[in-house]
Design goal:
415 residues, alpha/beta, TIM Barrel, two-stranded antiparallel sheet, globular, binds flavin mononucleotide
Length: 415
């Protein structure tokens, strides 16, 4: 790391924290370094759960390759020091256009994950999307990350959305800043690496998983402190003292399918803040969402975890932007590994870039310290990219010349 980046790191941290942050930067300077360390320190089944994709992992590879293929052309002679990366999303200020995507069961990567993610995001002032399938409640999330908490919901449609609507009420009451409805999981698909690692569906804590955990002492220690991860936002709707297997069965019974447009309209009526649809890849869906009053779109292929035939989400961003103009905020996710990737996403039309797996890698590698370290990597790398490209602000990234040969064009989608 050069002097300018060291100074940049130190700006947001106390002297002692900055020193520790620099030591970590030297040891584990990239997201992939964290991935390598996580693989060694986590139980195999936990690593395979978080790292594996659908099919033959081709969607994951496509996301990475497509990002790598986006080229940006700098203009020199303007910017001297790395500029700030701060931005505004849905009217709220954040330190950078970078955030944590929702993750179900992140405690698998490191028990207590949600608390560490929430605290790190609050300290770094980056948006944290707490998934409904999490080990802390939405109220606990809001207490830990009052300035940056977003809440993600899957479809709980039984009894006229009794659970879904109640969760929205609770998210509103505790001050979540945005509601994210995930629409890209209409079917349950198979992730072969997860299956091969011994994870069974419906979930069961088998002897093989227990033995696997014994091989990972740091992970096991965290499990002793935090307890087995449970999806506690759902506790009020479940019978008391439900076992792990029973709560997995409860979720299978209550949750499923993808929100229909009619349902999205009902959630729009209930939720008063920014509403975001997660999983939009087709421009016609983007237009429909905007017509229903949706404020934001996650351009994502779920990190390649649902089916590996989907386009790389970066390749869908320009067509989505062309479809919605400035009527919706576009959040890119799927494949992000660096601040340069965030710069690429914004240069081709997104407003922000979020990451899922890499935050889990950071937890698996470093436990509680992981998320903040990865946030530092991403923010500093984005700032360096801005400086390198001749941009004085994130906004100026939108004017950078970008070559994006594999981008989907409107005509590729058919009528
Ligand atoms: C282990 C894991 C669990 C996930 N759980 C959820 C979830 O509960 N809800 C959701 O909307 N997306 C979920 N996602 C998808 C992420 O929000 C995000 O779209 C994806 O991870 C982005 O791609 P990346 O992992 O390459 O950064 C999950 C992803 C992973 C890796």
């Amino acid at each position: 790391m050069d002097d300018q980046r060291q100074t940049a790191s130190a700006q947001t941290l106390s002297a002692r924290e900055a020193e520790a942050a620099l030591a970590l930067m030297r040891q584990l300077p990239t997201a992939f370094d964290l991935r390598g360390r996580a693989r060694k320190r986590m139980p195999n089944f936990a690593f395979e759960y978080m790292d594996g994709g659908a099919g033959a992992d081709l969607g994951i590879k496509r996301n990475w390759d497509a990002l790598d293929a986006v080229e940006l052309v700098p203009r020199y002679g303007k910017v001297v020091a790395p500029p700030p990366a701060d931005t505004t999303l849905f009217g709220r200020p954040y330190a950078a256009p970078i955030g944590v995507a929702p993750i179900g069961g992140p405690g698998t990567a490191f028990p207590g994950a949600e608390t560490h993610l929430a605290k790190a995001a609050q300290a770094a002032r980056l948006p944290y999307t707490l998934g409904v399938l999490s080990g802390i409640t939405v109220e606990q999330g809001a207490a830990l990350a009052p300035d940056v908490l977003w809440f993600q919901l899957y479809r709980f449609a039984r009894n006229d959305h009794k659970i879904g609507f109640d969760l929205v009420r609770r998210a509103q009451a505790c001050g979540a800043h945005a509601l994210v409805l995930t629409i890209d999981t209409p079917a349950r698909t198979i992730r072969p690496r997860e299956v091969r690692s011994g994870i069974v569906n419906p979930f069961k804590l088998t002897m093989r998983l227990r033995l696997g955990a014994l091989m990972a002492p740091a992970w096991l220690m965290a499990l002793r402190t935090s307890g087995i991860p449970r999806f506690v936002s759902l506790n009020p709707y479940m019978p008391a003292n439900t076992s792990l297997e029973e709560s997995a069965a409860f979720i299978r019974h209550e949750q499923g399918g993808a929100f229909t447009w009619e349902e999205i309209a009902k959630y729009r009526e209930r939720w008063k803040g920014p509403l975001i649809l997660k999983g939009v890849l087709h421009p016609a869906d983007a237009e429909r969402a905007v017509s229903l009053g949706v404020d934001g779109l996650f351009a994502t292929n779920h990190g390649g975890r649902q089916i590996d035939a989907l386009p790389a989400s970066i390749d869908a961003v320009p067509a989505l932007r062309a479809a919605v103009g400035n009527k919706a905020t576009i959040i890119f996710d799927s494949g992000m590994r660096s601040g340069v990737d965030a710069a690429r996403a914004i240069a081709v039309g997104a407003d922000a870039a979020f990451a899922g797996k890499s935050f889990l890698w950071s937890l698996g590698a470093l436990g509680a310290r992981g998320p903040r370290h990865l946030m530092n990597i991403y923010i500093e790398d984005l700032r360096a990219s801005l400086g390198q490209l001749g941009c004085k602000s994130v906004d100026e990234l939108r004017g950078v010349s970008a070559r994006h040969r594999n981008a989907w064009k409107r005509e590729d989608f058919g009528a």
